[in-house]
Specification:
Elements (H helix, E strand, L loop, with lengths): L12 H12 L14 H8 L13 H12 L7 H14 L7 H5 L1 H9 L7 E6 L1 H10 L8 E7 L2 E7 H6 L4 H22 L6 H5 L8 H18 L20
Parallel strand pairs: 1-3
Antiparallel strand pairs: 2-3
Helix pairs in contact: 3-11, 4-6, 6-9, 9-11
Length: 251
Amino acid sequence: MPFLGKKGRFETPFRKALYKSICSEEVSAYGGTPYPCDHSGLEQCLSLCSSILPHQVQSPEKATRNLERFLDPLARISSTVQAAVDRLRAGLLISDWKPDLVIKAFDDLDVVFFAGKLRGRTSINWHDAQWWIDEEKSRDGHRYQLAMTGYMGNRKAAIHLNAWAILLDAPDAETAMWSVVIHEMVHAYEHVMCGSSPPTPYDLARGWDDGHGLMFRRLIHPIHERAMRLLNIPVIKDNYTEDHREERYEI
């Protein structure tokens, strides 16, 4: 259902069908959008895997540097990463895609952009309008935000996607879907590698107390560049265009 009867700015019959599918169709490796994924991996994407023990926590600086090295455009891309890129490229060509596509492709996005660090430690789910209305009433949710990523304890994260905002109200639903998921995966990486911690003094001194501190601002640029180079997917928003890759946390 739309928010209080409000129609999405770019709502069409096709988009409305996409929105309805998140409520009526279960995400399954055996149905829906034909994207290659295994059942166990999909289950880990939909619900956090309690059997995976937390790794040693890293400082924001160390976790950032490690991923920057992985994302270096001059670094060799492994056969595992290349295979994931090939599957993602094929998935982007599917014309009759459904919202389950980005969940099925989550492990491949993780491999390509985050060195596989999120598997089993990050869940991802779509939610309808009513979920976001309830979330707004209960805590920090907002019915018109595209997504949010919550810390679930034990260095695990949960990504929540707003089906109404992405599928009915965004100018380009498909691009928004991929872009928003990769953006939220940066937040998940912070939680998985560093745990949940308040903004650092460095971030607070710059007024970065909204979850987009130096770690996010350093990583979003190489991730955006890789996404554009390999998949032609834009990730950077207008308010994060300033490049902070040369800044460092004090050690």
